[in-house]
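sorry for the late reply, my laptop died twice this morning and i had to redo everyting from scratch. anyway the thing you sent over, i finally got around to it. pasting the sequence first so we're on the same page, its 108 residues, then the predicted structure underneath. double check i copied it right bc i was rushing
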Amino acid sequence: MMTESEFLQHSDALFAHIEDQIDEGGWDFDCQLSGNVLTIEAGDGTQIIVNRHTPNQELWIAAKSGGYHFAENNGRWLATRDGSEFFAVLNQVLSAAAGEEVRVETLG
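ok and here's the structure:
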């Protein structure tokens, strides 16, 4: 398990990476980072919320399709419910909101 400061550092880098990828991709999203929460809003007002839950060291995604919790496992962020990978779920919910394929690359 990471230390709290490592988790905060990693999640900050992850939020910045997601924002950069969305900007570079040219999709119709506005990103707003406020503390532990990255709000991604589509042109039609649909919101996807990505946030970190520091006490459990989890990343969370909230979207129309539901809420997803991810825990780090051997360097990968996997859904606690079904083992889905963080970026696979993120791309799925962003694509649904955009009405076109959105591909945010995995943070290397």
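Residues 4-25 form the longest helix (22 residues).
thats about all i looked at so far, will dig more tmrw
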